[in-house]
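Fold this sequence, please.
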Amino acid sequence: MRTLRNVFRRKTRAFLTIFGITIGVLALVVMGAMAEKLNLLVDGGVKYYADKVIVTDESAGSAFMSAPMSTSKVDEIERVEGVTRASAGVAMLLDEEMGAVNMGTPPMVVAEDGRAQGYETFEIRFAQGRDIRPGERGVAVVGSDLVGKLDAEVGATVKVRGESFEVIGILEKTLTGPDSSVVVPMRDAQRLFVRTLPDAVRGVIDEKTVCTSISAYAAEGVDPDELAEAIERGVAGVSTMGPAGFEEQIVQAMSLLNSIIFGIALISLLVGGLSVINTMTMAVAERTREIGIRKAIGASNGAIMRQFIAESGLIGMVGGAVGVGLGWSVARALNAAGEASATTLFLVTGRLAGGSLAFAIVLGVLAGLWPAWHASRLNPVQALRYE
């Protein structure tokens, strides 16, 4: 209690100092929450690409771009040594145009031909309903993040690219790409995708054989990255991406983005730390006679240091706790605001909240070290004469 009373002797100054720490921790939590969510998306991608090679038309330029290719490539790819199965799929944006600013995975319409059953190891569970059965048409399975955007419920219909689909299932939250996807039957996806193509391209494409990518599953003991090179050598007109390609394109970019995000947040927090140094230095100056009295009646240098370090640590702890609470509230509000567009970009994890609070306390303690050391070194006689 004495430490608390000492901190709030100058209430306005104490609140302003705590406010500085709070703002820094708030920035750390909000920006860290965005990094946590993006990292989970990347982790999901790493797991998804771990045992397969994604094959796209060479004109797509990247496995993340959609360009039409023929499902006839499935047979060619399966003839490559080391491929145990190949499965065609279609993927396109759910909205006709991608937003100008989009972090994370945009809402997608996806489909696959069913040949991956028994080979796909990326597990997806259903929160409600069931999966699409072979031969079904006009049905859809909705990812958890799109439930609000599409107003989806099992048994009701949703609009996908202007067409009505009956919702037969809703996926469990995975915190990765499937959360922002609508799965439809392959033939429906092929029809929707062909509509997105320019007239000149549409006229020369067979709707029943179009796809945007083919997943090639590696046989046991085969390195997917070596298999990706073998497919490019053996199949004309395609480009491939294996686990190493995904890490090169996405993981390294995310590492840089994480560094920038946390760098900005830490700078904000360090500014708060400087305000703690300023506050504690002023406190030592104002309480010089008190320090002299304590030392005159036997207080040791260590006791004086502990007193001021405890006060600066308390400032860090209060500012950190309030900052974590506000950061969690802001992240929830931003996610709620983004639900309508399926943009839930923030995830406050226990390690982020605990780490932010611990960092604020450590910062408070470190910021108080020099003022506390200065206080402990005061000469008691000179301190008692201090006016």
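The two ends are 27 Å apart (CA to CA). The first strand starts at residue 52 and ends at 57.
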